[in-house]
Amino acid sequence: MLVTFTSSETGELMMFAEVARNLLQAIGKETTARGTFTREEMATAAVMLRQAVERGEKPAAEQAEDEDEAGSEPVVALGQRAWPFIDMLERSARGGPDANIVWKAAADF
To answer: How many domains does the chain divide into?
Structure first.
């Protein structure tokens, strides 16, 4: 399933539900079929994601793969997945007073 994030300032960003779930959970958002970030939430969310990347956090699925295949590195790390979303959050946070980001998916994820 795909999740589409739409920003009033930057356009659209699409990602698989598993990736979106990991990123949203890292910042404390629920993974519902529809959701939003207000302008006030965006800068804090971007900082939280940057911190998760710096700590080298891995999504639960990647941790399980690492346990199964000791010594193997994930093909795409959290940081690579997070940067486009961090950019969207930061650029949108600098937008006008009505700046927002919404997401939608076919179902809760």
So the answer is: 1
